[in-house]
Amino acid sequence: MENGKPVLLHIDSSPMGQESVSRQLTHEFVKRWRAAHPTGTVTSRDLTAMEIPVIDAEWITANLTPREVRTAEQERVLTLSTELTQELLAADEYVIGMPMHNWGPSSSFKLWVDQVVRFGETIVVTPEGPRGTLGAKRVTLILAAGRQYGAGSAEASKNYLEPWLRTFFANLGVTRIRVVLADGTVRLRYGQVDRAELLAPHLETVRNMAAAG
């Protein structure tokens, strides 16, 4: 909450711009969320429009150093990470769109993930072991895939993206996870299905999710 008002973090990671199915669905979600939360705030991140560095030994050392004893240089190394992490902590819920690339997440999203796994911030160490701090949050994952990976499909067992994402967010403490899978999008490229026809059921789903709060 920000001054008692809900905050939505909206993240896109498809490199396909206006042709992106996941972007169209996340933007519809945001539109309906705004209507349902007129006093709310939306923070948007297009991960493909920013440079997210690969983490290195210097970054890892800074992340593992307790905040109270970090040097100014270590804080500088973590500047972008801190900014992205604070957005994650400040939001009440997230809507995240991404394509399935090579059976996993898009490269820009994986870079973002590495930046927000922060000890003392999104993960704390307890006597029982590491614990995620985002337990009060909710995430809506909007995934697009060229081939068909839905339940009952021949390729369902190769949908590694959804379980990977569930594992990641669960380890940050998030238990309320909703997934929308818009698969079979390769048919658009070959004119085998109309775009409006493919999107219609998924648009209805995200509209209902956003409005339900």
Present the secondary structure layout.
Layout: E1 7-12, H1 21-36, E2 41-46, H2 57-64, H3 72-77, H4 79-90, E3 93-99, H5 107-116, E4 123-126, E5 129-132, E6 138-144, H6 161-171, E7 176-182, H7 186-189, H8 195-212
Helix pairs in contact: 1-8
Mean pLDDT: 95
The CATH class is identified as: Alpha Beta
Largest sheet entry: 5 strands, parallel
CATH homologous superfamily heading: Flavodoxin domain
Query: Which band does the percent of strand residues land in?
Result: 15-25%
Question: Roughly how many Å apart are the termini?
Answer: 14 Å
Molecular shape:
globular
Please report the number of helical segments.
8
Tally of DSSP β-strands: 7
Structural class, by secondary structure, is alpha/beta
Q: What is Rg?
A: 18 Å
Low-confidence stretches: none
Task: Give the helix proportion (percent range).
Answer: 25-40%
Which architecture does the CATH hierarchy give at level 2?
3-Layer(aba) Sandwich
CATH topology: Rossmann fold
Strand order of the largest sheet: 2-1-3-6-7
